[in-house]
Amino acid sequence: MIGGTELLSVTTTLPEPAFDLHYLHYPLDVPEGVSELELVLEYDKVVDVVQIYAVLLEPDGTFRGHVQCPGGPGPRRLVIRVGADGAGPGCVAGPVPAGRWTVRLDLDRHKAAAPYTLTVRAAQTPAAAEPARGAATGVARGAAAEPATRPGGREARPRPPIGGPGWYRGELHSHSAHSDGRRPVADLVRAAKEAGLGFLAVTDHFTAAHWLDLDAHDDIVLLHSMELTSHRGHANLHGLTRWVDTYVDRPGHTMVDVAADVHEQGGLVCVNHAFSGDQAWRRFDTPWDAVDLIEIAHLQQGANNDAQIGLWDRLLTSGHRVIGVAGSDCHDPADPGQALGQVVTVVYADEGSERGIVEGLRRGRVRVWRGADIDTRVNGAPMGGTAAAPGGRVQIDVDVRADEPVVVFVLRDGLLINVVPAADKPGEWQRITVEDRITVEDRLAAPGDHSGAYYRAEVHADPGRNDPQFWASSLRDHGSLRAAGNPVWVRPDG
After folding, report:
1. What is the pTM of this model?
2. Are residues 107 and 212 in the same domain?
């Protein structure tokens, strides 16, 4: 925007950091007849010390735009632009209603006071265009829950499935230029197809502005998702039909409210990179029953993945049915370190559609792929299911396929019960069977409503048949992991 009327101008310094200071708010009075707003936030970014995001909200609290500060340290000029004829990245196009808007500064990293400037300018609608603008405004405001360009919702646009029942490989964590990604949505979609993926979730931080860019693609399943990016943890929200208020670092709006909104839409909540420093999951007021998925394999988290799998087993042994998934957290598919297809979530779905993938994730017949495939049945019940155990007898059948020598680890309630080397048959499925017994006493001793046991299996690279240290210790970690299957629960008779 060149020129325009200045509605807000602030030159000041951030206050001293405080434990409960997460947002700064500036009211903004927008007069009648405005066609476009432009917000500019300028400050010097200090990585993990001073990082500020800007948010623009309509008078009724409707989200209109969010802008982040990707990249390294140095001066930042962040711009939000919204108007009836278009919007900038991360922002939602549409009429600009008169009234008191709000600028929210999200103090994502606030460990030092720092100067910043904030300005908002407005472009006026030419008088000759007023009747047309007024008519358009009436239509858009009255149908705010429908068009995909509006943050309140998206049109129901049924698409034919890309396939029938079967396994679908996909990516559940990626970012485009609508938040802090480096590439447009189209580049992510192209990279997903080139990696042989059948579904993709673009999980831009805070915003649903990227949803409009999903509509141009019909030969891959695209999930309507976003990432909740709070100061005490991140979570992906999948299978949405409307924007979710993810600003939970304020009184009166919690993760419980977010989860309720997501579940009302038929969607899923996934805790991300739970041990990632300042981005670790510390929302201790959130009941795990409100969480559907957890990242157990994150492409860029290294040894933190071992802690994530440990947390997952703790949750499972406590009776929480949380499904383990993978994510690359890709911000640039052209970067070899982030390229799609290196860590993959594989879902058995009734059909290749958004609803099919979401329901498949919910049911839990899901595996994490890092070079090998796995499928597990316990007494005939699939991953995510519950098996009966007549007489307490349990048979765990693990199907595995790999292009390298691998070892199968079978776990009960997070503890190893067997380690079996697979035959060296590159690219071929083979079955490994392990037997166990579960008693009524096991069931009575189980914590929470676990009521029995769960079994799951992992595939790891074989360190060598002549490695006595490995076979004595059964060491496994994120570096050797090639596949992880989700649990099958067992209820003994009696």
Report:
1. 0.91
2. no
